[in-house]
Amino acid sequence: MTQRDFEFIRELAYNQTGIVLPERKRHMVYSRLCRRLRALRMRTFFEYCGYLQQEPDEMGHFINALTTNLTAFFREKHHFHYVRDHLVPKWQQRRSRRLRVWSSACSTGEEPYSLAMTLAPFFPRTQWDLKILATDLDTNVLTKAEAGFYPPETLENLPPTLAEQYFTAQGGMAKVKDSVRELVFFRQLNLLESWPMQGPFDAIFCRNVLIYFDNPTKKKIIQKFRQLLSDDGYLFIGHSETLHLISDDFDLIGQTIYKPRIGSISGLNGERK
Ligand SMILES: C[S@@+](CC[C@H](N)C(=O)[O-])C[C@H]1O[C@@H](n2cnc3c(N)ncnc32)[C@H](O)[C@@H]1O
Questions:
Q1: Domains in the chain, CATH or no CATH each
Q2: Residue nearest to atom 26 of ligand 1 (CA)
Q3: Which residues take part in binding S-adenosyl-L-methionine (predicted)?
Q4: Which residues pair with 188 in a beta bridge?
Q5: Which residue in 106, 133, 162, 256 has its CB near the most CB atoms, within 10 A?
Q6: DSSP state of 82
Q7: 256 is in an annotated binding site
Q8: Is 95 exposed, middle or buried (0-12, 13-18, 19+ CB in 10 A)?
């Protein structure tokens, strides 16, 4: 991969996904795209870069190859404890019986399913309109997420009662039960592009993806989250992420947990309060 090839690839990745690929990620880019070159029986990155320009269908494969999808059930547990201990009692008081949560970079589904397992016992489907929207840019991870099959060892983080309650063994894999799957709606969505959802959301999870973006991209996305989040909503970001110097619209209220600042603009009513 020549410097010119790498420059082309990183510019394309940035324009398409917002993901910044610094020089230190060159080796990672090389090894991930090598697999794609092999599949296409191409010998050079020069050839592959040409193919990317001519073949619009290749873009999806290119993007899927470059995303980092590391995730786990109940990753950063404190967020799920916060939901269970602080938000559930609060939400249970509401009259509307409608709850909307968005996992905005859901990868293979462990995050939205962990949310569903946290909320399901408190908001029975017969009484509550609870929906968890789960989106990601990468179509491969969404296919896996929707299928809901996981290697049994990935359940190690789960309290044993949850594993028993919400998974069944099938063909050597652990399968998410329908009672949980039915709460989660998977869609492809690029955080860089326009979002079709109306909101308002009661909580948005955007964890471990802002880290791949530069500050102008982070600012745009966080501003849009504010517009879709209810004034009384919550934003959860990843352990190494911060809104410091990114947004004045949120107050930090817990470990990487934010609430809209009073007086910040909600896009839904469009008024400054
Ligand atoms: C490291 S995973 C984080 C998964 C999960 N949120 C967690 O914290 O465990 C980052 C995910 O962000 C997705 N992603 C990267 N760029 C994106 C974009 N522009 N729009 C939507 N998702 C994106 C990747 O496909 C990947 O699945």
A1: 3-66 (1.10.155.10), 77-260 (3.40.50.150)
A2: 69
A3: 69, 71, 75, 111, 136, 190-191, 207-208
A4: 136
A5: 106
A6: H
A7: no
A8: exposed
Kindly list the distances between the CA atom of residue 22 and the CA atoms of 19, 25, 193, 221, in Å, as whole numbers in the listed order. 10, 6, 22, 21
Q: What 3-state DSSP class applies to 32?
A: helix
| Residue carrying structure tokens 């190690």 | 156
To the question of whether residue 140 is assigned a binding role by annotation, the answer is no
Cα 59 to middle of ligand 1, angstroms:
17
For ligand 1, atom 27, the nearest C-alpha belongs to 107
Query: Model confidence over 116-130: pLDDT tens digits?
Result: 999 999 999 999 999
| Residue 119: predicted pLDDT | 98
Ligand 1 mean position to 105 CA, how many Å?
4
Quote the CA–CA distance of 85 and 82 in Å, as a whole number. Answer: 5
C-alpha dist (Å) from residue 165 to 158, 172, 183:
11, 17, 15
Rounded to the nearest whole angstrom, what is the distance from the C-alpha of residue 138 to the centroid of ligand 1? 8
DSSP-H helix ranges across 18-138: 26-39, 45-54, 58-66, 77-82, 88-92, 110-119
Pocket probe for ligand 1: among 136, 141, 256, 257, the residue whose CB has the most ligand atoms within 8 Å is: 136
With a CB cutoff of 8 Å and minimum separation 6, the contacts of 123 are 91, 92, 99, 130
DSSP 47: H
pLDDT in tens, 43-99: 999 999 999 999 999 999 999 999 999 999 999 999 999 999 999 999 999 999 999
Q: Is 190 annotated as a binding residue?
A: yes
- Residues lining ligand 1, Cβ inside 6 A: 17-19, 67-71, 75, 105, 107, 111, 136-138, 141, 190-192, 207-209, 212, 238
CA distances to 150, 219, 232 from 263, rounded to whole Å, are: 43, 18, 12
